Amino acid sequence: xxxxxxxxxxxxxxxxxxxxxxxxxxxxxxxxxxxxxxxxxxxxxxxxxxxxxxxxxxxxxxxxxxxxxxxxxxxxxxxxxxxxxxxxxxxxxxxxxxxxxxxxxxxxxxxxxxxxxxxxxxxxxxxxxxxxxxxxxxxxxxxxxxxxxxxxxxxxxxxxxxxxxxxxxxxxxxxxxxxxxxxxxxxxxxxxxxxxxxxxxxxxxxxxxxxxxxxxxxxxxxxxxxxxxxxxxxxxxxxxxxxxxxxxxxxxxxxxxxxxxxxxxxxxxxxxxxxxxxxxxxxxxxxxxxxxxxxxxxxxxxxxxxxxxxxxxxxxx
Length: 317
Prior knowledge:
Layout: H1 9-18, H2 20-34, H3 42-54, H4 59-76, H5 84-98, E1 116-121, H6 128-141, E2 146-150, H7 156-169, E3 173-174, H8 182-195, E4 200-204, H9 212-226, E5 236-242, H10 247-259, E6 264-268, H11 278-285, E7 290-294, E8 302-304, H12 307-314
C-alpha cells in the first residue's frame, strides 16, 4: 500500500506500549469473530461491526469500514477469515488516508514574526495542563522560547499545576490571582511574550462545559483581548480530549466545536485504556486534525499523531 512510514524506534516503542490495552482487547474480540469460520460471511461482518462499535471506533466510522470490507468481499468473491486482521488494517488505513483531516502542521511561524499563540481548551480532568506542559517541552527541545499563560483562574489547582510544569520544563509563566479575568491573563501573557521576542505562547483556559453560550462568550472574549496584542491570535485552538472516556470524548468534541473554532485535537491517556479505537473515529468524523496523542506519563510520551503509524502499531502483535 505504501501508507506506513518508518518511525524512530523510541517513538514506535512508546506507541506500542501505550496502545497495549487497546490491542489486547481488539485482538481478543477479533479472535472470537473468526473462531470456526473459514470465510468472511454476513455473520462475520455483523460480529465485526459489534467489535468496532464496542471498541469505541464510533457508529458512523464503523459503518463506513464495514461497507468497505463488504465491497472488498464482493469484489474478491472469497476471502479467508484468518486474513481479517490484515484486511481491517488496510481498510482503516485507506479510510484515514481519504478523510479531510490531512497531515498535521507542526510549524509555529507567523507572518509578522510575532509569537505563535495556542489557546488550549477542554473540560477538567482530560489532561489539559499536562498536555500544555509536554507541548512546552517539545518546543523548548526544538530551541523555541515558550511562554505559558495561566488563564484558568477558576481553579487554584489549575494555576498551581501549570506553575509546576513551567518550573519542570524551564519556561516562564504569566499568572494572576485566582478569580482574575481570564482574558486579562491572556493579554498579559501575550504582551510579555511579544515584548521578549518569544516564539510561542500557550494559553490555558477554564475546563468547564457548563453552558455552550457562556463558554462561547468566555472564549470569544479571550480571543478578542488577545487580538489587541496580536491581531490574528490565537493561531491555533487545541481541544484536549480524554481518550479513555470513549464515546464521551465524541460528545465533548461536538460541544466544544459548537462553542468555538477548534483547529486541532489532542487525545490523552490512551495508555490506560482499551478504548484507543476512539482515535480512529474522531480522526475520521471530525474535519479537524488529531495533532497529538498521549501514550504515557513521561514528558516525552506526547506524540505527534501519525495516522498510519497508529494503525500499524494497533495491529502489531
